[in-house]
Write a structure and sequence with these properties.
Shape: elongated
Number of helices: 2
Order of helices and strands: HH
Largest sheet: none
Number of strands: 0
Structural class: mainly alpha
């Protein structure tokens, strides 16, 4: 199904998946006793790391 999507839609789905993964990591850190800021910081960190990976892989 992923291959049938257009390139802009694939990048959107990839970025959304990175955001969700970052939020889940933040929720896990919060659940382990991390602070309230764990969720947004993990989500933003995942977005930044994801964008660097996308740029290194040759994405837009």
């Amino acid at each position: 199904m992923y291959d049938s999507l257009s390139e802009p839609m694939r990048m959107l789905v990839s970025r959304l998946a990175v955001l969700v993964a970052g939020a889940l990591v933040g929720v896990a850190i919060y659940g382990l006793g991390g602070g309230v800021l764990a969720v947004p910081l993990a989500a933003v960190g995942a977005i930044v790391i994801g964008e660097v990976v996308f740029l290194a892989a040759g994405g837009d």
